[in-house]
Amino acid sequence: MKKSTRVNHPPTVELPPGNHALVAPIYQTVKFEFDTLEDTERYLRGERPGFFYTRTSNPTTRQLEQLLAELQGREECLVTASGVAAISQTLLTLTRQGDHIICFVETYNPSRYLIRRLLGRFGVAHTMLSIEDLAGVERTLAAQPTRLVFFESPTNPLTKIADIGALTRLARAAGALAVMDNTFAGFHQHGDYDVDVFVHSLTKYASGTGDVMGGAVIARAELIRAMRTDFGTLGGTLDPHAAFLILRGLKTYFVRYQAQSASAARIAQHLAAHPAVARVHYPGLPTHPQHTLAARQMRDFGTIVSFDLTGGGPAARRFADTLALFALAASVGSTESLVVTQQMMGGRELSADQQRISGITEGTVRLSIGLEDPDDLLEDLDRALAAA
Fold it and tell me: Which of 23, 50, 62, 337 has the fewest beta carbons under 10 Å from its own?
């Protein structure tokens, strides 16, 4: 074999029997092959296991899928290139022209766009309510056939809590699928509710370090089987190296989430007592309107603390510009603490009534609490609040 050929067909290294890598290797390859054409054909007919093309499946992404399904308490999972890819591919796969979706004002802005604009172009109708309007959900389900009830809890950014038991019961009785964006609550929460499909942004708590993007769709096996071909054809595939980094991040998931939640609770209590703060939105506080519901549904109250400054928009601007330890950046769940203001949250397409329902004001600020020492974070916040 000449050297120009050898560099494209290097020697193979296989572990001997009984010898295993402690950390699974990254299968950074697009293509897989079988020894014979007959084996290839058997695979393509679904008669033998294996891997063929990474857009369809890959050992590294498959390991991540199996782990996430187990964490969420479901049978199967599909991973995607981003959290929004998980949402968009789920919505496209589960709906068709003439279907109807119930969604909510208090929903991640890209999710609203996907339902209202993208699916709307393809003839999928929607009704948008408040997450607190269970009577409206019941009326809507009774009035017209509905394919999906799409919701999140806690909501972004004001941490409203969905009554998951009530929503899933109403959806089930009407023959609709309950699809839940569970990103803020994490993989260890809400799995005991009758949710048909969970979607997650792996960019957030799964990775934890803010340096890799990914998404996940978790459901019972029959639903995932029905979605798998469409997902592969839509092409929003998670790269194996990104899957490896997310797997690495998940090793510290529970330690991070619990530590960050504990810091968030302490910061929420501190903010609630500060004269510059009009209201704190944190489900762990007894003053949160849905604290009792949150305590019933959640093991941890989360790492997101939102609040309204008494000084409104100008105060929020001064507050954000004064902070030193909180990065003025999008996303949540990373080891660094982050801050966004109302101007960065979107929602401009909402009507005046919908904006009122959302609860976001010009003085609203959302904090994502990281792993810094909470004393340092409180000192930074007090300095910024004084400036506000």
Answer: 23
